[in-house]
Design brief:
The complex is a heterodimer. By secondary structure, chain A is mainly alpha-helical. Chain A has 9 helices and no strands. Chain B is built from 9 helices and 2 strands. The chains are: A mainly alpha, B mainly alpha. Chain B: Belongs to the BioY family.
Chain lengths: 197, 189
Amino acid sequence: MIVDLYVFGNSPLHRISPGYKILALVLFCTLLFVLSGWVPLAVGAILVAIGYWLAGIGFSHAYRAIRPALWILAIIFIAQIILAGLELAAFVVVRFGILILAASLITMTTKTSEFVDGIQAGLKHAPSWVPADHIALAISLALRFIPLVRATLDEVRMAQKARGLDRSVKALLVPLVVRTLKTGDEIAEAIQARSPL
Amino acid sequence: METRDIVFIALFAAIMAALAVFPPITLPVVGVPITAQSLGAMLAGGVLGATRGGLSMILFLLLVAIGLPLLPGGRGGFGVFLGPTGGYLIGWIFTAFVVGFLVERFWHQLNYLNAFLASVVGGIVVLYAIGIPWSAFVAQISVWAAFVGSLPFFVGDIIKCLIAAAVIVIVKKSYPIITPRKRQAATTE
């Protein structure tokens, strides 16, 4: 099964509804870009630090959130030093770090299921031209299909390995896509047979 | 939009997720790991068509945004969109749409060559046109510098376009899903 990036906890940050958290994040990021400068950056860094402290999320989780971006940040840092000097290089990389940490804080304090519930609650108030049922169905189907398609990929890979074809991307993708499409038609028929959607 | 369309959209979002665990191919010369997910964006368009392909990418990115670790290396959450490569992720929506549009347009004469060209236009031209200015903006470097920085990926992207073209053509022969643009306009369902 897929495990989300949630870190268990019961802090105020964990309990706020996901909608407000996203809104706060959007506001935070916009302000950091608009009020470009070291002072807003320092304030932002302090806010993010307070956020991590409030949520009780330790250094190791924060590091895990930023680690995948490290090598890109390093490249940007070097490129910036060559192109624009040390100060701008440091500024850009620090801002990235703060943005990524702020976003990860939201991700780590919110369960995927809370987001899904939030989206579905929001869809109830959506104007009538929004196909709310279809969107809700698509999200829940996709969550169910991810382990299904991964299992199919594993099966295809083993089958092609037996034929000595497991190094060919094409020999893996074609059966994966065709089998998935066939499954899709069967599932669509099953849904249609049972529901008036 | 019928139930069948929604099922296909959800399934291709799931295929994108499966491609994250696809063994990455590392180019021996350049040393840059190539992941299969942008290949998935081209396939979504080339197999499902413009609308369904684009919607499946939106759905996939929504799942990533709400915290599922569906990108290579188990990345996910809002942070990935704010990072320097966020533009490429958003670009997948347009990649899928453009590849889908072109494949629908050339459906009756579809062969390896025009499927490859459709993949190049959608998966390289359009994707870079969004991804490069984005990283230039967020990293505050010139567009030219961002362009040079993305060149190591170019060889891998060409290989991905070749694979995508082959898969699109074979899937068309064995399990066609797309209704071509012209005929759709004539029958008006």
